[in-house]
Amino acid sequence: MPDSFEIDTANRPAAERTEYWRSSVCDQFVPLAVQPTVSELHGRVAGATIAETRLRRIRASQHVFDRRASDIRAGDPEVLHVLSMDHGHYCQVEQDGRTAMVKPGDLLLYDSSRPFRFATSGAFQFTIGLLPKRLLPLPEKVLADRTARVAPLADGVGAALGALLTSLARGSADLSDPSQQVAIQHALVSLSVAFMSGDGAVGSPPSVHLSLAKSFIVRHLGEPALAPADVAVACGVSLSYLHRLFANDGTTIVGYLREQRLQGAHRDLTTALVDEPVLLVGRRWGIPDPAHFNRVFKKRFGMTPGEARRFARTPTPSAG
């Protein structure tokens, strides 16, 4: 399992545990107020990252976790949390005007982009997957309607989603191959979409494939040899099917790849604080040939990379 880790308050001196725990929880999940409600704090977080999805298992003494508007302004990874309660008595969860009472064997969704509050009734253990929302073909209004609603893990799609989530969080599988990671992430996304599709208001499976393909491309923009066939293999679909998905989205695989590279290069050239050679910018974004970089950049933005940098650095005349 790649990028696995473990954090445990037992490994810290008693005087340092509370601050260490608060900082660790914010780092591993999202910025929020972490409030232990018993005098003797115990806390452990373990997990791993698969492609862009974080998997976390958190066990701790009684707590209140409160994500406020100020916390969201401090940092929002824009993730949907898929939570399975493994142990404990119950936990009260509030989000989007709803209150849910979660018990062991329950599954619940909550969103990093809006305030939420957790109050546990005692010691607990949660398994949580943090799925990037841009991978989910779901409008925000659909996501907001699914949060803070309890579902049992006894059967159906919820059972499959919960089983996959907890199995991956244990870190028992060897997923060092990036293509395997994308495939597992695809399974998590697809099951999550199916779990939320009770009224048919969500996107279709092809939208999931397109979302995952775009995600794979964005994470490999710096590889000059990246080709449509590589994307198809990583996403577990045929190349012809992938071409149709992008065509239905109004673009092509190559066109999407080129646009993402050029947008990244333009951003670096016009906002970077260091005077990095233009050639290195092109290389970083998978366009190592200087002549080709100049040509495609000018066609897209109406100026060469060097001109774009000089234009961005030209002082704007002050009014009056």
Protein described:
The chain is an alpha+beta fold. It folds into two domains: 5-169 and 178-197, Sandwich (Jelly Rolls); 204-315, Arc Repressor Mutant, subunit A. 43% of the residues lie in helices and 22% in strands. The protein has twelve helices and twelve strands. It has a seven-stranded antiparallel sheet, with helices on both faces. Strands 2-5-10-7-8 form a five-stranded antiparallel sheet. A hairpin with a 2-residue loop joins β7 and β8 (98-102). The protein is globular and about 65 Å long. The model is unreliable at 199-205 (pLDDT under 50).
Taking pLDDT < 50 over at least 5 consecutive residues as the criterion, the unreliable ranges are: 199-205
SSE string, helix = H, strand = E?
EHEEEEHEEEEEEHEHHHHHHHHH
The largest sheet, given as strand count, sense and whether it forms a barrel, is: 7 strands, antiparallel
Oligomer: single chain
Envelope shape = globular
**What's the CATH topology label of the largest domain?**
Jelly Rolls
CATH superfamily of the largest domain: Jelly Rolls
Strand order of the largest sheet: 1-3-4-11-6-9-12
Annotation, overall tally of beta strands: 12
Specify the CATH architecture of the largest domain: Sandwich
Number of separate domains: 2
